[in-house]
Write a structure and sequence with these properties.
Two copies of one chain form a homodimer. With 202 residues, chain A is α/β, with parallel strands linked by helices. Chain A has one domain (8-196): Maf protein (Alpha-Beta Complex). Helices cover 37% and strands 25% of the residues of chain A. Chain A is built from seven helices and seven strands. In chain A, strands 1, 2, 3, 4, 5, 6 and 7 form a seven-stranded mixed β-sheet that branches. In chain A, helix 1 links the parallel strand 1 and strand 2 (29-30). The longest helix of chain A is centred in the first third of the chain and has 19 residues, at 51-69. At the A-B interface, helix 5, strand 7, helix 6 and helix 7 of A face helix 5, strand 7, helix 6 and helix 7 of B.
Amino acid sequence: MSDGSGELVLASASSTRAALLQGAGLDFCTIAADLDEAALRRTLLKHNAPPEEIALALAEAKGKMVSARRPEAAVVAADQILWLAGEVLAKPADLAAARQQLLRLRGRHHDLVNGLCLVRDGQVVWRHSDRVALTMRNFSEAFLDAYLAAAGETVLSSVGGYRLEGPGAQLFKTIEGDYFSVLGLPLLALLDFLRDDGVIAS
Amino acid sequence: MSDGSGELVLASASSTRAALLQGAGLDFCTIAADLDEAALRRTLLKHNAPPEEIALALAEAKGKMVSARRPEAAVVAADQILWLAGEVLAKPADLAAARQQLLRLRGRHHDLVNGLCLVRDGQVVWRHSDRVALTMRNFSEAFLDAYLAAAGETVLSSVGGYRLEGPGAQLFKTIEGDYFSVLGLPLLALLDFLRDDGVIAS
């Protein structure tokens, strides 16, 4: 399906993002950027950057790192942050932290904010961001413990301590947003750009 | 996770729906209804029924058939129809029909309309419907042929001749609606009812 020109690189270690690109029929390789995300996030938060700008800055930093190694490639980089009432929540370090985080999110609204960009020869040639609005239901602590026991360590791989494709669905009341953006990759916007840019066939 | 009371049965042969329920951590078994969907759909269309009513009537008919075999169980039944400018499109019979259908959908807006219900002892105790709005991009015929070659017979398993989890994503410009509804099962609404009903733990 991707009989256009140019090598495509996904600057991400996320298996979900790779699965989406693969599902769409694209040929690409994956190179994870070795970025100190926490440090960059802290700097941006100190400057009161809006969540879209934080997600984009993280995506761009990852994309540029990988582009330095593959200057001729079209490097796709993405980031997703969890925005709760003006605060960015980071991936929980362990199950106890995940439990605390889910108790904070319980019964409340939060956003998942995506930043996505394409970098070529060190230059950001395209950027895109969007949001998904989610509301958790007011689950019991007994439910939460059963959820954590069922989901196990997988909750640590997600920024919010949940995977919607798994038992995490049971935590939610409503989810509003683009199908692909929920999964951390605004795929339709990306495909649109890649076609315009001649990377994939239209 | 589903330590509530009562046996849960999914009246559907769709592997996607089963995967969503399984992902959410529910215990259930699957019994496909042996319904002449085309005949019922024709009757409903003759009476100018709106798409929500058609999808619900099909879901309810399937749910009642399976409930007759398992009266004590909570039977979940679902249907999804493709609504294009006042017309219901059926699953394509072969690749040539899928090609024709995709050419009709090209560059246009259509809706996927879900009907979902729960049947117990032959009675519909809950019903829910929603819509997802999709717009296909104006792809070339060369692209379409490459798509059909890549996707193969899998396009025949979907009402619109596409699977968004696969190369079908490349056919679209926008997709607006609930994450789970796109996949043919409004999961959050269903989980909400199952909790209220005591079928699963809350």
